Amino acid sequence: MTQDELKQKVAQAALHYIKDVAIIGVGTGSTVNHFIDYLVDFRADIEGAVSSSIASTERLKKIGIPVLDLNAVGTLDVYVDGADEVNPHKQLVKGGGGALTREKIIAAASKKFVCIADETKCVDVLGKFPLPVEVVPMARSYVARELVKLGGQPVWRENFITDNHNVILDVHNLDIIEPIKLEQIINNITGVVTVGIFAMRPADVVLIGKGNEVTTL
Ligand SMILES: O=C[C@H](O)[C@H](O)[C@H](O)COP(=O)(O)O
Hints:
Elements: H1 3-13, E1 23-26, H2 30-39, E2 48-51, H3 54-62, H4 70-73, E3 76-81, E4 85-86, E5 92-93, H5 100-108, E6 110-118, E7 131-135, H6 140-149, E8 153-156, E9 167-172, H7 179-187, E10 192-195, E11 197-198, E12 205-210, E13 213-216
Parallel strand pairs: 1-2, 1-3, 3-6, 6-12
Antiparallel strand pairs: 4-5, 5-11, 7-9, 7-10, 8-9, 12-13
């Protein structure tokens, strides 16, 4: 199977978790795009979705699924989203597509976070994938200097603005041995909006597309 076929398969497997769920939290990215495409057959049962990005909002609307404001919905039963890296503790690195802040908000507001990933995303130690950090634009250089002090090499994602009108620093060369600790440390740097480590609120279920099957963590 190609990587895209694996993404499709794992996205299909996530449908099991949305049975009888009226309002679904929906993430962002190429894996989630497959999930959204599958939702077309469930339109009649779905009241709406809370979306983590403008891109996902557009895709959901295109297939006729109403996109709702999280403030009006309260706690979500299920949130389905992809990841850039997954470790055996269901802790993640996210934000390769720059949607990390809204993703983290929806994950926090959801009872069950179902992460869908192909096997290339599995690692023992997070950090091989450059760690995305969303930063208020005027704080970019200051935050970059603070990230260097932590041992990383931040690279400004040029010509990219997030849905929240901020910038992204991708931090290379980090071995994230203590994900919760590093998440807290980076979150505490003034000017950081969100760090792409999802460890304080990890996934509850990780579905991994591997070979011809989907395994569950
Ligand atoms: O900002 C983007 C998100 O965190 C995505 O969920 C993540 O980058 C995985 O994307 P993909 O499914 O395209 O690999």
